[in-house]
């Protein structure tokens, strides 16, 4: 059976809807209906960042201390308004007002999402972010919980930067705090699955304590598994346990996330391997994961992020359907059981465009008919801060450069294009480089243009020279003595 996992962020619905009096139920129903129309088979409802989007008995809701009729300088908003102005304050007000309105109209957000998913025969899950750090550099921001504000002694130690003030899960107080949310979720909501999202954030322990932390986290996961199984017996149906984990096995392990061991011990049923945020990752080692998990009874899903950037400092944009199709085709080709979408918000696409894109991603047969794009990108979680085990392949400088890019299987008779982006002081004046794919004859550029300061070169070739087993070796060779500054390398495959 084809399946498509869809992770719904805890804020998107609320940011993009004004909840009129008496219309909370229908507004939320329409939103879920739109996603259901895309062929989603498993809906993962995210209920938390540092705060929760429903009236919890154990965690603070987003709207705590907020007066929807009060001014922008009320204590809840005053600092945000003073520092960021009216526009961002209005956005935050809309978010919190919508959450509060849903509650005031008697709608328990995750409970109603579960109910509406079952109406569409979609499997309802709840996904919990295990160490969210949104706006940690802005300690005054209303996104932060009182637990985070009042317990700096529970932060990670030895690191600096954006993730330094994430919680250290070596502390029992941190695990107990998240346990309360896990237990409430299981007791209150009749779900088919619970996902623990360790990509928000994967930085879970103090410097040098990740190996010891691995044992702590494994023991804790065993307790969670037992709690999930106990709830399943009470409900009278199975409840699965899933995780989102860094895209590479050794990276996950280095951070204290022993994904393979958890699978071997039957602690998890779903393993989602994925980048964190910065980009789609087209060469995730799905085959290696498949081999490591071969004896385990788990579903392996390949995670697709909504952003793409060719290298860490490159501008990022929302993926196009062609870019999403390329990434989905690749993870399925390499052995993933399913495609998993993260932050593919309906608000970011036109109505028909959104549903058509999801319908294609939900169907391997339809996916195989579509033009698609594959890109050299990068691994955005490489280990504890400062780890350099996976240097980004781009940007690259030199006269003779080689890149690796898998593209999966290609229908007979299709055509392909290699797209190269050049940057730098001499990029516009240089002779166009030649290129080759898998030691093919040298290819000459057939199109040469400039887009936002990047020189864009296109080389056409028959798709049958692509290597679906080993991936493709792409060589870019300077035609003069000037080194090339390559900032993007893509392959586009399309029917003739």
> Can you tell me the CATH superfamily of the largest domain?
Glycosidases
Query: Percentage of helical residues?
Result: 25-40%
Share of residues in strands: 15-25%
Terminal Cα span: 30 Å
- Estimated radius of gyration: 24 Å
Helix and strand composition category? alpha/beta
| CATH architecture field of the largest domain | Alpha-Beta Barrel
Count of β-strands: 19
Mean pLDDT across residues: 96
The rough form would be described as globular
Task: Indicate how many domains the architecture comprises.
Answer: 2
Give the C-level CATH assignment of the largest domain.
Answer: Alpha Beta
The number of helical segments is 13
Sheet with the most strands: spatial strand order = 1-2-3-4-5-6-7-10
Layout: helices, strands, pairs:
Elements (H helix, E strand, L loop, with lengths): L3 E5 L3 H4 L8 H13 L5 E5 L31 H27 L4 H11 L3 E7 L16 H5 L21 H17 L4 E5 L12 H26 L4 E7 L2 H6 L4 H6 L5 E5 L11 H7 L6 E6 L2 E2 L8 E2 L2 H13 L4 E5 L8 H11 L2 H4 L4 E4 L20 E3 L1 E6 L9 E8 L11 E4 L9 E5 L2 E9 L9 E6 L6 E11 L2
Parallel strand pairs: 1-2, 1-10, 2-3, 3-4, 4-5, 5-6, 6-7, 7-10
Antiparallel strand pairs: 8-9, 11-19, 12-19, 13-18, 14-17, 14-19, 15-18, 16-17
Helix pairs in contact: 2-4, 6-7
Short description:
The protein has helices spanning 12-15, 24-36, 78-104, 109-119, 146-150, 172-188, 210-235, 249-254, 259-264, 286-292, 321-333, 351-361, 364-367, and strands at residues 4-8, 42-46, 123-129, 193-197, 240-246, 270-274, 299-304, 307-308, 317-318, 338-342, 372-375, 396-398, 400-405, 415-422, 434-437, 447-451, 454-462, 472-477, 484-494.
């Amino acid at each position: 059976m084809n399946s498509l996992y869809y992770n719904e962020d805890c804020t998107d619905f609320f940011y993009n809807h004004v909840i009129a009096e008496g219309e909370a139920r229908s507004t939320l129903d329409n939103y879920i209906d739109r996603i259901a129309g895309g062929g989603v088979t498993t809906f993962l409802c995210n209920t938390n960042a540092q705060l929760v989007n429903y009236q919890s008995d154990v965690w603070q809701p987003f709207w705590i201390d907020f007066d929807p009729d009060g001014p922008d300088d009320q204590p809840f908003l005053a600092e945000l308004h003073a520092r960021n102005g009216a526009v961002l304050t209005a956005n935050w007000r809309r978010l919190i007002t919508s959450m509060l309105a849903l509650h005031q109209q008697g709608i328990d957000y995750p409970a109603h999402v579960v109910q509406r998913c079952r109406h569409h025969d979609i499997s309802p899950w709840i996904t919990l972010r295990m160490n969210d750090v949104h706006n940690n550099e802005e300690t005054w921001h209303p996104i932060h919980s009182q637990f985070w504000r009042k317990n700096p002694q529970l932060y990670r130690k030895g690191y600096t930067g954006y993730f330094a003030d994430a919680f250290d899960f070596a502390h029992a107080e941190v695990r107990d705090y998240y346990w309360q949310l896990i237990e409430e979720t299981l007791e209150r909501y009749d779900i088919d699955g619970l996902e623990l999202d360790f990509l928000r954030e994967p930085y879970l322990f103090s410097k040098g304590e990740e190996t010891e932390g691995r044992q702590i986290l494994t023991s804790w996961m065993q307790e969670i598994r037992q709690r999930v199984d106990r709830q399943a017996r009470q409900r009278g149906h199975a409840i699965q346990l899933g995780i989102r984990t860094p895209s590479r096995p050794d990276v996950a392990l280095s951070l204290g996330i022993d994904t393979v061991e958890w699978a071997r011990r039957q602690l998890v049923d779903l393993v989602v391997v994925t980048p964190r945020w910065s980009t789609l990752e087209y060469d995730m080692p799905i085959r290696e994961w498949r081999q490591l998990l071969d004896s385990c009874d788990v579903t392996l899903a390949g995670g697709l992020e909504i952003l793409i950037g060719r290298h860490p400092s490159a501008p990022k944009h929302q993926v196009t359907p062609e870019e999403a199709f390329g990434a989905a085709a690749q993870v399925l080709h390499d052995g993933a059981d399913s495609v998993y979408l993260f932050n593919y918000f309906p608000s970011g696409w036109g109505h028909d465009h959104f549903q058509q894109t999801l319908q294609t991603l939900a169907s391997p047969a339809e996916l195989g008919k579509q033009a698609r794009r594959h890109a050299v990108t990068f691994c955005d979680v490489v280990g504890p801060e400062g780890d350099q085990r996976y240097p980004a392949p781009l940007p690259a400088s030199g006269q003779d450069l080689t890149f690796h890019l898998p593209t999966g299987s290609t229908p007979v008779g299709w055509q392909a294009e290699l797209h190269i982006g050049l940057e730098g002081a001499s990029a516009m004046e240089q002779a166009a480089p030649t290129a080759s794919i898998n030691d093919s004859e040298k290819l000459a550029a057939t199109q040469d243009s400039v887009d936002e300061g990047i020189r864009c070169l296109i080389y056409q070739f028959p798709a049958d020279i692509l290597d679906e087993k080993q991936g493709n070796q792409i060589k870019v060779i300077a035609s003069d003595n000037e080194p090339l500054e390559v900032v993007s390398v893509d392959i586009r495959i399309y029917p003739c």
